[in-house]
DNA sequence: TGCAGATGTTCAGCTTGCTGAACAAACCCT
DNA sequence: AGGGTTTGTTCAGCAAGCTGAACATCTGCA
């Protein structure tokens, strides 16, 4: 590994001056990235995993899924398309409202979700970086709630 | 605004069961999203803003910038291309090592960065969602440092 | 009944992440 | 000096965000 030069050495100091949004973005990328190889092995993605998580209990319409996953309808459309291609969900149109596409998890979907969750839990050990992990998560959740309500989304 | 149905109403509860990476990802998207319109007005993006931030002091090679911004060289290549197109930076090859492309900020770049920072600081008020904002940021930074070191990046 | 507006999904096209591969320039070692 | 390796950048192509627009279906009201 190459010796970083002077400018690169003060990386940690530098990041202090970043806006919070960018800190969140980088942290998300790095944390999710740690797990990408495992998911790829399973033919799954982070977006797909959360989507599966939401249809475990009962089939949902794509729009409902989009709201739950905090993405646009268009993004959810592509995510479900990919999940269907992989055989993890089935899509069918609602008899009572044929505009709606219902999404139901398949046995393969349940299985892969279970595996992914187990492996994720195991790799989560490294998050000892954060002192009070539960509080940190609560703050993230509070942040999401506030921004969601205050017009960041679905206002 | 439509009345959310039952399943959608327990959104806040649901998010508690998400993996931390996904929480970070959604939070990042929502927080950065609040500011997208302002940046678009300035012909700037979040990625571009952080890049400008790093060349304010002195010109840097693209690879150095990539390390500082925590992105791959390829991503930085495209980001600087866009910044150059907008006139916020100038790229030129290093005389002493003609493999390197040096990136220097332009007067227009300094100006737009200043404006973006001011507007961002103002809009940051809403982050009162988090109790101990400084501690929260410190934890994000610690997380980034740990994951960066432990092979999430440049190992 | 029939038409206007609301709703759910998809299509097209953009940005910004990523990886893998290509390529030129520089470095190093004999 | 020459040739293999390293280094810095770019190209190609994929995933998953986004917006705007198109399209089909449903709802509601005259």
UniProtKB/TrEMBL annotation, chains A, B:
- Domain of life the protein comes from: Bacteria
The GO annotation for biological process reads: response to stress
Which SUPFAM superfamilies has this protein been placed in?
A: Winged helix' DNA-binding domain
Residues in HTH marR-type domain copies: 17-149
**Alphabetical keyword list:** DNA-binding, Transcription, Transcription regulation
Q: Mention one GO molecular function.
A: DNA binding
Query: What is the recorded name of this protein?
Result: MarR family transcriptional regulator
Q: Which organism is it from?
A: Umezawaea endophytica
Show the taxonomic lineage.
Bacteria, Bacillati, Actinomycetota, Actinomycetes, Pseudonocardiales
């Amino acid at each position: 590994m190459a010796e970083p030069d002077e400018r690169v050495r003060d990386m940690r100091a530098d990041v202090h001056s970043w806006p919070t949004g960018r800190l969140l973005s980088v942290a998300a990328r790095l944390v999710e990235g740690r797990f990408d190889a495992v998911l790829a092995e399973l033919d799954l993605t982070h977006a797909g995993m959360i989507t599966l998580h939401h249809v475990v209990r009962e089939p949902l319409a794509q729009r409902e899924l989009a709201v739950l996953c905090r993405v646009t309808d268009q993004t959810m459309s592509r995510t479900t398309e990919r999940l269907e291609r992989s055989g993890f969900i089935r899509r069918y149109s609602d008899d009572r409202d044929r505009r709606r596409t219902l999404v139901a998890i398949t046995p393969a979907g349940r299985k892969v979700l279970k595996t992914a969750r187990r492996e994720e839990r195991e790799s989560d050990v490294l998050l000892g970086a954060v002192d009070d992990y539960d509080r940190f998560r609560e703050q993230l959740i509070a942040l999401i709630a506030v921004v969601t309500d205050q017009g960041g989304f679905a206002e």
